[in-house]
Design a protein that fits this description.
The chain is an alpha/beta fold. It contains 10 helices and 14 strands. α2 packs across α7, α3 packs parallel to α4 and α5 packs across α6. The chain is elongated, with a radius of gyration of 23 Å. The relative contact order is 0.12.
Length: 373
């Protein structure tokens, strides 16, 4: 086992600085930030810790190597040099998938085929056999090719890290858990915060805020692909889970309130909060936006309002933004964080944001409009 691994975590565009800070907190070294990803180094135990703790990472990958390739011969030869056998056993599965952008090697299927053949060739030499049944644990090989630079990685997470386990059901157009966690971070949710979501949907913004406030590791209730790999000692995962449980801050005074015009949404928010283990910390009721009020002196309002795609929906959405501007009180102690792709949101809302941040909700380019009072 190597004493230090290079780890790469992709993330939503716009959340790189948030993820970088998370990585620093859990002990990542030599942190490098690029568009849509953060790369760092650490001991094998950091792979387990990253999977358990990183709120805004999409997955945790081990970097096997990076090289230039403009021909399939180069791609094959460089792949064959990588020490796959350090991780992939004789019976393990090693499928290949990835992407290519602005590169001479643009055919994904051809790249997959070449990289797979090179991986087999490497393992043939190591294990002395030409056929691999691949019946063991999956070691997903991920490749990316950007401007002819190839990066080869092993995915240790399996299912994406946004799959926390609490949201088995979701309403139409939910916000991804990792993006919601990033918004909660940008909103500086504290342990004693009151957080309100007036259009709570599945409750994701409230739940991610609560997990942050109570310092609950987002991956505490799920498992990861690398837990079944021979490379990692089982004690690493056991010890990191034990440490995560002991790190929960049970003194937090956080409280979450959700409203939604759809009763099914408020019911789902409560159900998902229970699944996340913080059911007593979040309440949700059926209430339309027109009835929105805030009695508390201090509160953070997080909101992912409908975007609208067709002309009729866009008009309804714009009317909704105007209503938000009327019913959201402007007074000291209240702050608002609203994510939307609408370029005229500030005009419709009736106030210029104190700060804006470009974020992507899936493939949709959005802005997080931040208001401090």
């Amino acid at each position: 086992m190597q004493s230090s691994l290079t780890i790469c975590c992709p993330c939503h565009f716009g959340l790189e600085s948030v993820l970088s800070y998370e990585v620093k907190k859990i002990g990542g070294q030599n942190i490098q930030v690029a568009d849509g990803r953060v790369t760092f180094e650490g001991a094998p135990s950091l792979v387990a810790r990253s999977n358990l703790w990183l709120r805004t990472a999409e997955r945790v990958c081990i970097v096997l190597g990076t090289f230039q390739a403009t021909t399939f011969t180069q791609l094959f030869d460089e792949m064959e040099k990588l020490p796959l056998e350090e991780f992939v056993g004789i019976n393990d599965a090693f499928p290949v998938k990835g992407w290519s952008l602005k590169s001479q090697l643009f055919s994904i299927s051809d790249c997959q085929s070449i990289l797979k053949k090179a991986a087999v060739k490497r393992l043939e030499k190591v294990y002395g056999q030409s056929w691999f049944e691949e019946t063991g644990p999956v070691h997903q090989i991920q490749f990316s090719i950007m401007k002819d630079e190839v990066t080869i990685m092993l995915d240790t997470s399996g299912t994406g890290l946004h799959k926390r386990g609490y949201r088995r059901d979701a309403l139409e157009a939910p916000i991804k858990e990792t993006l919601a966690a990033g918004i909660a971070d940008l909103a500086h949710i504290r342990k004693d915060a009151l957080v309100i979501d007036p259009m709570c949907g599945s409750g994701t913004l409230l739940i991610e805020s609560a997990l942050r406030a109570y310092n609950i590791a987002p991956g505490i209730h799920r498992h990861f692909a690398a837990e079944s790999w021979d490379y990692f000692d089982a004690s690493i995962w056991k010890d990191e889970r034990k440490a995560a449980l002991s790190a929960i801050d049970r003194t937090s005074g956080f409280h979450g309130i959700g409203y939604d015009l759809d009763k099914a949404a408020s019911d789902l928010t409560r159900a998902n909060a229970v699944k996340a283990g913080i059911g007593s910390k979040i309440e949700a009721t059926m209430r339309g936006l027109a009835q929105f009020t805030v009695d508390a002196e201090q509160a953070v309002i997080l909101c992912n309002p409908p975007y609208g795609e067709r002309m009729m929906e866009i008009k309804e959405t714009e009317d909704l933004y105007r209503l938000m501007g009327r019913v959201f009180p402007k007074r000291k102690g209240l702050s608002y964080y609203i994510i939307t792709p609408h370029e005229d949101f500030e005009d419709l809302f009736g106030r210029k944001a104190d700060k804006r941040r470009k974020l992507y909700n899936g493939m949709i380019k959005c802005q997080l409009f931040m208001y401090y009072n």
